[in-house]
Automatic annotation (TrEMBL):
Residues 91-325 form the NAD-dependent epimerase/dehydratase domain. The keyword Transmembrane helix applies. Belongs to the NAD(P)-dependent epimerase/dehydratase family. It is found in: Golgi apparatus, Golgi stack membrane. This is UDP-glucuronate 4-epimerase. It is a multi-pass membrane protein.
């Protein structure tokens, strides 16, 4: 056996005998083969872990960028955002495949503004209805990006591609009673999502003006009627209302610190074609047609509940009026350069109708009797009545609702029957 010294200090050739040399060569050869083998193993392991890391990164990025990105996608965004009238605007409509989002987008496009929708297509209610709205928008040249307002990278990308002049922020977790079932969804969309959107707006250059959907529910337990913007809004009756009220405060800070132009719209129970299946007028219609009972809530002392139901076309006019009159944001790259407008308006109909009266109108339009189950209003976040004072909106936005509940529900029922037919059975019933 070679000595340790031999191994480390190889002898000069010719100094060792032959047997010793063969032995040494064999040993060296064996040693180098096993080293090579080890190296090979090491390389294979390295390659394998590199490949699996790559696939992890790939699948990860696929998860985060599920359905956005790429040259084709960017082209669709740009084309959709193109302004086709002088003095027009380019608007990012969040909740673009939602009820109000769809109608506002169509109205903007129709008059030549650029519109890009953004919607996460969640399954709070039947996503196939949202997909159908998306198809409708697509037919009118409006591209709806599939993504969440909490995705900061996506928002930054959108502002990178298009210098949006306005953001119409309608994406939200809606519904008053569902907040007891899934409270966190309200925090996710109405608080975290709102902050994520405002962060993107404040960093954009130029900063867009923001018009967004607050809610009549912020008046909560307020008893003074009709509800005016200056009335107290510190007694919310539901978590939904509390998140909308929080939104009003959050938008105020972004206005104050970063100079974002903000207009908050307090919508009053909006209804109409392409509406939300979680709302009473919608699922009452479905149940009446299917011969199923409906539950009608009644207030204290057997007083009927009432809502200031507002037709979608009137709401659209209020939204466009808000966009048209929104002053500019004053900041750039996250810095405020002067005061910017902060406005809040009621968008209601100014004529509340009781829930039993709403049922009566539906019965007449459907030519069918409802099977009514009348119960006392459970403590689920509902308020007994809503009634908007709209003088501010009338004065500042030229807002003037023109559709009463009879006329609006007639249009809704016509749409419902053409969309679902008389036997609507599929779809996720939320209530
Ligand atoms: O203005 C708003 O800010 C909100 O308007 C809407 O809320 P609401 O006014 O509560 O509408 P909606 O659910 O259609 O109930 C209508 C009436 O039917 C009664 N109602 C309801 C369900 C039922 O099973 N029975 C019943 O009597 C119920 O008690 C109520 O009196 C939006 O959903 C909400 O997202 C928000 O935008």
């Amino acid at each position: 056996m070679p000595s340790l010294e031999d191994e480390f200090f190889p002898s000069t050739p010719g100094k060792k005998d032959r047997a010793h040399t063969i032995n040494r060569q064999f040993h060296r050869c064996f040693a180098s083969t096993s080293t090579m083998f080890l190296w090979a193993l090491f390389l294979i392991a390295l390659t394998a872990s590199y490949l699996s890391f790559q696939s992890l990164v790939h699948s990860g990025s696929r998860y985060f960028t599920a359905s956005w990105g790429g040259i084709q996608w960017e082209k669709q965004v740009r084309t959709s955002a193109q302004i086709r009238r002088s003095g027009g605007m380019s608007v990012l409509v969040t909740g673009g495949a939602g009820f109000v989002g769809t109608h506002v987008s169509l109205a903007l496009k129709k008059r030549g503004d650029g519109v890009v929708g953004l919607d996460n297509f969640n399954n709070y209610y039947d996503p196939s209805l949202k997909k159908a709205r998306k198809a409708l928008l697509n037919n009118h040249g409006i591209f709806v990006v599939e993504g969440d307002i909490n995705d900061a990278r996506l928002l930054a990308k959108l502002f990178d591609i298009v210098a949006f002049t306005h953001v119409m922020h309608l994406a939200a977790q809606a519904g008053v009673r569902y907040a007891m079932e899934n409270p966190h969804s309200y925090v996710h969309s109405n608080i975290a999502g709102l902050v994520s959107l405002l962060e993107a707006c404040k960093s954009a250059n130029p900063q867009p003006a923001v018009v967004w959907a607050s809610s009549s529910s912020v008046y909560g337990l307020n008893e003074k009627v009709p509800f005016s913007e200056s009335d107290r809004t510190d007694q919310p009756a539901s978590l939904y209302a509390a998140t909308k009220k929080a939104g009003e405060e959050i938008t105020h800070t972004y206005n104050h610190i970063y100079g974002l132009s903000i207009t908050g719209l307090r919508f009053f129970t909006v209804y109409g074609p392409w509406g939300r299946p979680d709302m009473a007028y919608f699922f009452f219609t479905r149940n009446i047609l299917q011969g199923k009972p409906i539950t009608v809530y009644r207030g204290k002392n057997r007083v009927d509940l009432a809502r200031d139901f507002t037709y979608i076309d009137d709401i659209v006019k209020g939204c466009l009026g808000s966009l048209d009159t929104a002053g500019k944001s004053t900041g750039s790259r996250g810095k405020k350069h002067g005061p910017a407008p902060y406005r809040i308006f009621n968008l209601g109909n100014t004529s509340p109708v009781t829930v039993p009266a709403l049922v009566g109108i539906l019965e007449r339009n459907l030519k069918m009797k409802a099977k009514k189950n009348i119960i006392d209003m459970p403590g689920n976040g509902d308020v007994p009545f809503t009634h908007a004072n709209i003088s501010s909106a009338r004065r500042e936005l030229g807002y003037k609702p023109t559709t009463d509940l009879q006329t609006g529900l007639k249009k809704f029922v016509r749409w419902y029957l053409s969309y679902y037919g008389y036997n609507h059975v599929q779809g996720k019933a939320v209530n």
